[in-house]
Amino acid sequence: MKKAIVCGAGGFIGSHLVKRLKSEGYWVRGVDLKLPEYSKSLADDFIIGDLRDPVVCKNSINFDFDELYQLAADMGGAGFVFSGENDADIMHNSALINLNVIEYAYKAKVKKVFYSSSACIYPEFNQLSEDNPKTEESSAYPAQPDSEYGWEKLFSERLFLAFKKNYGIDVRIARFHNIFGPEGSWKDGREKAPAAMCRKVSETSDGGEIEMWGDGLQTRSFLYIDECLEGVRKLMDSETFFGPVNIGSEEMVSIKYLAEIIMEIAGKKQKIKHIAGPLGVRGRNSDNSLIMEKLNWKPSYSLRDGLILTYKWIDEQVKKK
């Protein structure tokens, strides 16, 4: 039986990854500050601990796991990342976690290490247009991320790759593009656009008004959680390709259109009130040329398919309040 450790197993992607690994027959240890909020963890062993603390890392990564997944980070949606109020915590906390995790993965002789980077590492100057953003993997340099979150992710990519180069650790890196789905943040200030819009549409009556930051013409692509995990597993199983590689959807939409899809799913017609708020880059889309070439993989879920499942779950949460 293969053994895996998921750092950040109490979070959205991490808790889903634990379920995926268990379905494949792994023994799984989870590590996080907290247990998953919305469902019971399926991990065989769960350590509640702070990965910023090297003692916690040492005690958690304490043997030669077949696979380690490093997803733990101080992160959230635009309201958290782009407000400017959390920059020091984002950089300090996530960098400490990554420094500790890769060091103890090396010391424990972990066989494969996955690091979850982000589309936020891409230069702001390539994402000034909502119509034609540039995010192929080679465009990361010269670097100019639009947030401290992006800078920390880029630093940590280089950290993991340096351990690969100097110490021979089998490191895999993926750059996630806006992963969404059930059991993610939806009301705590860290939620991303799909969850925020689902919540607003659910909470507002038919004919009512919802608020949206900016003019709504800014563009993004969003990837459903099951697709994200499939891409991660494909990357980990590859014997020849290690990344960094985009894991995202190429179905780019405006935030206004995203809201309209959700209204249609909910059977509501609502007005949109545009207000000031943190926005990030003007346009972003996943370039999937490399992952298709190297892993022969692309997402199969449409955005609408994923939103149907996500809206249903968030609507249930709203009604429980």
- Helix content range of the residues, please? 25-40%
Rg computed from alpha carbons, rounded to a whole number of angstroms: 19 Å
Indicate how many domains the architecture comprises.
2
Query: CATH topology of the largest domain, what is it called?
Result: Rossmann fold
Looking at this structure, what is the CATH superfamily of the largest domain?
NAD(P)-binding Rossmann-like Domain
Tell me the β content: 15-25%
Major beta sheet, specifics?
7 strands, parallel
The CATH architecture assignment of the largest domain turns out to be: 3-Layer(aba) Sandwich
Provide the spatial order of strands within the biggest beta sheet: 3-2-1-4-5-6-11
Along the chain, the helix and strand elements come as: EHEEHEHHEHEEHEEEHEEHEHH
Question: Can you give a write-up of this model?
Answer:
Helices cover 39% and strands 17% of the residues. The chain has 321 residues and is an alpha/beta fold. The chain has two domains: 3-179 and 223-247, Rossmann fold (3-Layer(aba) Sandwich); 182-221 and 251-287 and 302-316, UDP-galactose 4-epimerase, domain 1. The strands form four sheets. Strands 3-2-1-4-5-6-11 form a seven-stranded parallel β-sheet, with helices on both faces. The protein has a two-stranded parallel sheet with strand order 7-10. It is globular. The mean pLDDT is 95.
